[in-house]
Write a structure and sequence with these properties.
3 strands; about 60% helix; single chain; 5 helices; Arc Repressor Mutant, subunit A; alpha+beta
Length: about 110
């Protein structure tokens, strides 16, 4: 299957992936808990959402990929810091608006 120029342009302007219910629930738990090390974050998510530790780690990885949490190494610990909800929602919404505006073209004042 050949990718046309039009399709290639659409692929370039993709928005951030929208988190699913499970990721939103985990993000909410992490925001309430604040800064945690990775082991505590995995325990919190797996215990509260009734998932395995492996699944909880994958949820946290997905949250990092979509920009909901920052993971940094501080000495021997791996720290998970959730972004404030306003910043995270702004990232999601701005990406969505950008992708929608690219579909319509960049015409100013366009009406339907």
């Amino acid at each position: 299957m050949r990718i046309t120029d039009h399709r290639r342009a659409r692929l370039r302007v993709q928005a951030l992936p929208v988190p699913r219910k499970r990721e939103l629930a985990a993000y909410f738990l992490l925001v309430k808990a604040g800064r945690l090390n990775l082991g505590e974050a995995v325990e919190l998510v797996s215990g509260t959402l009734c998932t395995t530790k492996r699944t909880a780690r994958n949820i946290i990885k997905r949250l990092k990929r979509i920009g909901a949490v920052k993971i940094r190494v501080s000495g021997p610990e791996i720290i998970v810091e959730p972004l404030p909800p306003e910043v995270f929602l702004e990232k999601i919404v701005s990406g969505y608006i950008e992708s929608r505006s690219s579909r319509c073209g960049d015409e100013e004042g366009r009406t339907h």
